[in-house]
Amino acid sequence: MSQYYQTYYTTGEFAKLCHTTKETLFHYDQLGLLKPDLVKENGYRYYLSKQYFEYDFIKVLQEAKMSLKEIQLFMKERNSQNFVNILSEKNQELENEKKKIQRMQYRIQQAIHMTEYGMKTKHMEPFFEECKEEHLLTISLPGRQMTDKEMMTYISEHLEYCHQNHLTEELPIGSIVYKNQYLKGSYNENCYYVRIEKKRKDDNYWLKPKGLYGTILHEGFYDTIHESVCKLLDFIEKEGYQVIGDMYEYEIHNHFTSQDIYKYLIQISIPVEKR
């Protein structure tokens, strides 16, 4: 027998060696995960040096998101193939978790960017800006004034679809008003949308084209948005441009930054070209 890994430790000494507590070792003993190598007649419990690696193995499996129950089952039928199988499964779970974290980081970064954009950009003053193309996922709306209950149903349905399909949606939700509608003075939304990372084969996919947009940051809620739309359309006309597409509304500041809906900041953008 090798002379190595044969030193005995009391429960307290072994707990210190493993950087854990005696209570944890007692719990592992009760579960049958890690029992003392020796229990004397007086009830004193002793662990061997080599059992440190048993404890470390359990710790590694826990860090791989295995429950103690899963570890217990694995330890009963421990072999190379089972080890590969369980770690492969846990590796895939960690990969899924990593993607989930990356999606959340993206959402947070975009929320920071848009909030800071709203803080440093003048409000209620129209301007032109060059915009990159954006990939949107939409849900069609009735194109009429909706009740609060109807509105929330559409929002909930759309965001749940994004969650179920693991799409990287941003925190705010945007809306689209068709050109033939807002030019008639009607600003009821025709679609809700969220931004996604790339083009997607989906009936609800929508490409917001790159180009020059007339833009204004509206202070207030949607029931007063007509004032800013009229100001923006007048500005576009006076500057010698014409509108060439649908209107996009996007909440820059909303319930994340204010408890008062009339302190919201809504970006209104319309694609334009020189007359």
Describe this structure in words.
The chain is of the alpha+beta class and 275 residues long. The protein has two domains: 8-78, Orthogonal Bundle (Multidrug-efflux Transporter Regulator, Chain: A, Domain 2); 103-274, Multidrug-efflux Transporter 1 Regulator Bmrr, Chain A (Alpha-Beta Barrel), CATH 3.20.80.10. It is 42% helix and 23% strand. The strands form two sheets. Strands 4, 5, 6, 7, 8, 9, 10, 11 and 12 form a nine-stranded antiparallel sheet that branches. It has a three-stranded antiparallel sheet with strand order 1-3-2. Strand 2 and strand 3 form a beta hairpin. The mean pLDDT is 89.
Shape: elongated
Mean pLDDT: 89
Could you tell me the radius of gyration in angstroms? 30 Å
Main pleated-sheet profile: 9 strands, antiparallel
Keywords: Coiled coil, DNA-binding
Coiled coil: 84-114
Organism: Coprobacillus cateniformis
Protein name: HTH merR-type domain-containing protein
Give me some keywords for this one.
275 residues, alpha+beta, Multidrug-efflux Transporter Regulator, Chain: A, Domain 2, Multidrug-efflux Transporter 1 Regulator Bmrr, Chain A, 2 domains, 9-stranded antiparallel sheet, 3-stranded antiparallel sheet, 12 strands, elongated, MerR-type_HTH_dom, DNA-bd_dom_put_sf
Give a summary of the structure in a few sentences.
Helices cover 42% and strands 23% of the residues. With 275 residues, it is α+β, with helices and mostly antiparallel strands. It has 2 domains: 8-78, Multidrug-efflux Transporter Regulator, Chain: A, Domain 2; 103-274, Regulatory factor, effector binding domain (Multidrug-efflux Transporter 1 Regulator Bmrr, Chain A).
